[in-house]
Design a protein that fits this description.
The complex is a heterodimer of chains A (about 110) and B (about 120). With about 110 residues, chain A is mainly beta. Chain A is built from no helices and 11 strands. In chain A, the strands form 2 sheets. In chain A, strands 2, 4, 5, 6, 9, 10 and 11 form a 7-stranded mixed sheet that branches. In chain A, a hairpin with a 5-residue loop joins strand 7 and strand 8 (about 75-80). In chain B, strands 1, 3, 4, 8, 9 and 10 form a 6-stranded mixed sheet that branches. Chain B has a 4-stranded antiparallel sheet with strand order 2-7-6-5, with no helix packed on it. Chain B is globular and about 50 Å long. Classes of the chains: A mainly beta (about 110), B mainly beta (about 120). The interface between A and B is medium-sized, with 31 and 29 residues.
């Protein structure tokens, strides 16, 4: 039982490059989330998907796009990476939107040079 | 492992003592709160939650207290163990636009347990 799986775990980009972070969950959860975590700060919500077919902006959506590909998968895309997007990115899922336990992946560390 | 925060507030306690971690929230309309634990190099893990119609909820060795008057939340850990060393986050379910809700995390507290 894998839970929440994120790929890649590490990535280095140059400014202006694009990339997609992939997230998949095998728990049949309805809701999925993308957070970023910077040193000295808590997790900040980028985007979330309360259910398949819906997505909503979180606290810091600028510079990102998301796709809820199906119930299992929720991807995060950086179209033109900036050094300010250097962070650790966490994907999470839950049975109900915004309520109950969120199950987190192990994180993806992104460095933008 | 991943560095989760170099300048977080830190609470240092002796093994076996009780720990109290505090959290303030800003939105009086928030009606649901969760505590998470994050160990180095890992994603956050759920500890306990509480709804705003409760003042206290207990789990195994943990108690969450909610004071809505001053918008304050605390996590008490009894008989703190070395395995409790981690960063602890509170999170609140905050109303957003169009009847939507967002789960917003606080900045975290690092708990260090001295042997």
């Amino acid at each position: 039982n894998a839970g929440v799986t994120q790929t890649p775990k590490f990535q280095v980009l140059k400014t202006g490059q694009s990339m997609t972070l992939q997230c998949a969950q095998d728990m049949n959860h309805n809701s999925m989330y993308w957070y970023r975590q910077d040193p000295g700060m808590g997790l900040r919500l980028i985007y979330y998907s309360a259910s398949e077919g819906t997505t909503d902006k979180g606290e810091v959506p600028n510079g990102y796009n998301v796709s809820r590909l199906n119930k299992r998968e929720f991807s995060l895309r950086l179209e033109s990476a900036a050094p300010s997007q250097t962070s650790v990115y966490f994907c999470a899922s839950s049975v109900l939107p915004v309520t109950g336990e969120l199950f987190f992946g192990e994180g993806s560390r992104l460095t933008v040079l | 492992g991943e560095s989760v925060g170099l300048h977080l507030p830190t609470l240092s306690v002796q093994e076996g003592d009780n720990s109290i971690i505090n959290c303030a929230y800003s939105n009086s309309a928030s009606d649901y709160f969760i505590w998470y634990k994050q160990e180095s190099g890992k994603g956050p893990q759920f500890i306990i939650d509480i709804r705003s119609n409760m003042d206290k909820r207990q789990g195994q060795r943990v108690t969450v207290l909610l004071n809505k008057t001053v918008k304050h939340l605390s996590l008490q850990i009894a008989a703190t163990q070395p395995g409790d060393s981690a960063v602890y986050f509170c999170a609140e379910k905050r109303p957003g636009k169009d009847s939507s809700y967002k789960l917003i995390f606080g900045s975290g507290t690092r708990l260090l347990v001295r042997p």
